[in-house]
Input
Amino acid sequence: MQIQETFTVDAPPATVWRFFEDLERVARCVPGVQSIDMLGPDRYKVLATQKVGFISATFEMATQVESRDPLRSLALASVGKSVKGAVGNVRSKDRVEFEPTPEGGTRVTLTSEIAVGGMLGALGHKVMCRSRRRSRRSLPGRCRPSSEREKRGDLEPLLFMNGTAREADGS
Output
């Protein structure tokens, strides 16, 4: 299944790019992600819980940066299996694209191609799409700069997560 979300950030592409380059910081903003460990250059182990209806599973995934085109796009690939809850596996290809807006901000498009096997996959694409979309819509409000950063005025890496992102379609 493919899921695509677009939102606008009130920050220049270089600021948004620096945020997305730090996957450990981004992971703290994604609902369900419990931990992320760097395994090597551009390789991570991610522990995340996904719930669909009354069924939930915690997945351990190997995530790798497949490509990056600075200030334009970042591509990731993940594969994993459940380690708790419903038995299953997950495979995902994710692409983040950055486009400058005339107002000086950045249009961010997140595209995910996801395949889930096991009980969660059996519940169907529609339920999973709604769940993933809700998670993505909550992303902009989930990260806030720490009070220490705010005192220093150092909001750069988290600026766009400070409630300034909005859905491109106005919703």
